[in-house]
Amino acid sequence: xxxxxxxxxxxxxxxxxxxxxxxxxxxxxxxxxxxxxxxxxxxxxxxxxxxxxxxxxxxxxxxxxxxxxxxxxxxxxxxxxxxxxxxxxxxxxxxxxxxxxxxxxxxxxxxxxxxxxxxxxxxxxxxxxxxxxxxxxxxxxxxxxxxxxxxxxxxxxxxxxxxxxxxxxxxxxxxxxxxxxxxxxxxxxxxxxxxxxxxxxxxxxxxxxxxxxxxxxxxxxxxxxxxxxx
Length: 230
Ligand SMILES: *[C@@H]1O[C@H](CO)[C@@H](O)[C@H](O)[C@H]1NC(C)=O
Ligand SMILES: *[C@@H]1O[C@H](CO)[C@@H](O)[C@H](O)[C@H]1NC(C)=O
Ligand SMILES: *[C@@H]1O[C@H](CO)[C@@H](O)[C@H](O)[C@H]1NC(C)=O
Ligand SMILES: *[C@@H]1O[C@H](CO)[C@@H](O)[C@H](O)[C@H]1NC(C)=O
Ligand SMILES: *[C@@H]1O[C@H](CO)[C@@H](O)[C@H](O)[C@H]1NC(C)=O
Description:
This is Phosphatidylethanolamine-binding protein. By secondary structure, this protein is of the alpha+beta class. Helix content is 13%, strand content 27%. The protein has four helices and nine strands; from the N terminus they run H-H-H-E-E-E-E-E-E-E-E-H-E. The protein has helices at residues 2-10, 24-33, 36-39, 199-206, and strands at 49-55, 61-63, 68-69, 80-84, 97-104, 118-132, 140-143, 166-176, 213-220. The chain has a nine-stranded mixed β-sheet, covered by helices on one side. A hairpin with a 7-residue loop joins strand 6 (118-132) and strand 7 (140-143). The longest helix has 10 residues, at 24-33. The two termini are 21 Å apart. One 2-acetamido-2-deoxy-beta-D-glucopyranose is lined by residues 84, 132, 137-140.
């Protein structure tokens, strides 16, 4: 309603009240439609619905749904990670930990992605919380206990060059092999370089199965003086 819109606009920080669940099939289809599968990731058959929330230009917390179009400003620090259907992933227990990354598949430019994949974030040791998402009440939060966050790649806000095409940014979620509950990814030789990150080589290096969930957003660097559209 109009009143709700006015109230929402007047109170930055409120949660997105249009947030809805996305089925795993819809995630799978969107990854195909975007060309990410098979161009960037050979296959994606998500067991869980994986969500990220972000601060929208109007100040609200919004749920990222696969294919959301963001402004560069809206790509700032993710606010929250959450999942639905976690029990549908194989081999999950209460002790299971998870790792999450963010990458740009189209760096430095969609037409000539010589830095593919460019990693903007990688961190392990997430676990499923009893608390649910503040934006989507049916999704369980993924958290790192306070003071224990030690990302392998600390979050870097994307800054794609103006007029370098429509960039596809991918967040993915994996179950973390047990050894990494007590040791970092560098212990298996993972390197810090963020450019030209080879995902298939990395999965073999860490002993990972396929991603259990993934989502993505785009930034249209040709729109709004390179700032994208929301
Ligand atoms: C859970 O996994 C099974 C087997 O892959 C699948 O048939 C089912 O649709 C999944 N359920 C959900 C809610 O995704
Ligand atoms: C499940 O976990 C056990 C013990 O960690 C492991 O040996 C097995 O390979 C895992 N199975 C799958 C399908 O990941
Ligand atoms: C919290 O999330 C879990 C897991 O997705 C779900 O089973 C439960 O119903 C949610 N709780 C509420 C109050 O929606
Ligand atoms: C997980 O946490 C433990 C204990 O703090 C730490 O030793 C380990 O390196 C962490 N693993 C990852 C992948 O961050
Ligand atoms: C990524 O690594 C795999 C396995 O090591 C290799 O076959 C493939 O050619 C690499 N891809 C790129 C783009 O370098």
